[in-house]
Design brief:
It contains eight helices and seven strands; from the N terminus they run αααβαβαβαβαβαββ. It has a single domain, classed as Rossmann fold. By secondary structure, the protein is an alpha/beta fold. α6 packs parallel to α7. Helix content is about 40%, strand content about 20%. α5 links the parallel β2 and β3. The longest helix has 15 residues. It has a seven-stranded mixed sheet with strand order 3-2-1-4-5-7-6, sandwiched between helices. The structure holds S-adenosylmethionine (SAM). The site of S-adenosylmethionine (SAM) has 18 residues, from α4 and β2.
């Protein structure tokens, strides 16, 4: 046992990418094409992808909701870990992103599983009524609304289902009193982490993968 966690230096990160990645040539190419089309490269990282797939398989997820599609990288990654007949809805407010993702999802042969909704997440959630309770929710959109997303989505998540949110380390600044990047987002994330961690309906953990994923299993 060690007192401090092992920092992921460049050498370790290469090892992770070589051995514990969910990225294949298709996803690699997707990122290149997205960049050519002016879509920012802010997708989940490849080892985060494998970790999300691990969780989805562990809980046998069939009904998944994602907020923040971007180019479809995480949707495709997650859908690949779902059983046939599963459903993943992903919400994206930028038309250009939604259009690109829809095209790539079709190319990936996953359009029978993934449904892209070009909508503002809050507008969508205010009218959304899933046919079946959700097994897994992945939030990777506008940081100031994470707590509202949690409040709106908790009643739609089954007991034993998981709510996960990306960038829980706030680009590395979550513990900083004077963040140099996106101070408003950092403040929102810090507030959200605290709110989620003490939520009476969840058992919550912080996973130091990528920029941190905070995840909670719904217990009541
Ligand atoms: C970090 S990116 C998502 C990355 C994606 N999950 C992946 O890993 O491949 C965030 C995305 O959320 C979208 N977004 C931001 N605010 C939103 C909102 N209120 N409703 C829907 N989408 C939103 C942005 O346009 C952007 O495409």
């Amino acid at each position: 046992m060690s007192l401090k966690p092992t920092p992921v230096n460049d050498e370790l990160y290469e090892y992770l990418k070589m051995n514990f990645s969910s990225e294949d040539d298709f996803l690699h190419q997707l990122l290149i094409e997205a960049e050519h089309e002016g879509i920012p490269n802010i997708s989940i990282s490849q080892e985060q992808g494998l970790f999300l797939q691990f969780i989805l398989k562990t809980i046998n997820a069939e009904n998944v909701l994602e907020l923040g599609t971007l180019a479809g990288y995480s949707s495709i990654t997650m859908a690949r870990a779902l059983a046939k007949g599963s459903h993943l809805i992903t919400i994206e407010n930028e038309f250009k992103h939604a259009l690109f993702a829809t095209r790539k999802i079709k190319e990936a042969g996953l359009d029978d599983i993934i449904e892209v909704q070009n909508s503002n997440a809050l507008d969508f959630l205010n009218i959304y009524k899933p046919d079946t309770e959700l097994d897994f929710i992945f939030v990777d959109a506008d940081k100031p609304n994470y707590a509202r997303y949690l409040d709106l989505l908790t009643p739609m998540l089954k007991i034993g289902g998981i709510f996960a949110a990306d960038n829980a380390f706030a680009f590395g600044f979550v513990a900083s009193s004077a963040p140099e990047r996106n101070p408003e987002d950092v403040k929102s994330i810090t507030g959200f982490n605290k709110y989620f961690r003490s939520h009476p309906q969840y058992f919550v953990s912080m996973v130091p993968v990528g920029d941190g994923i905070i995840m909670g299993v719904k217990i009541k």
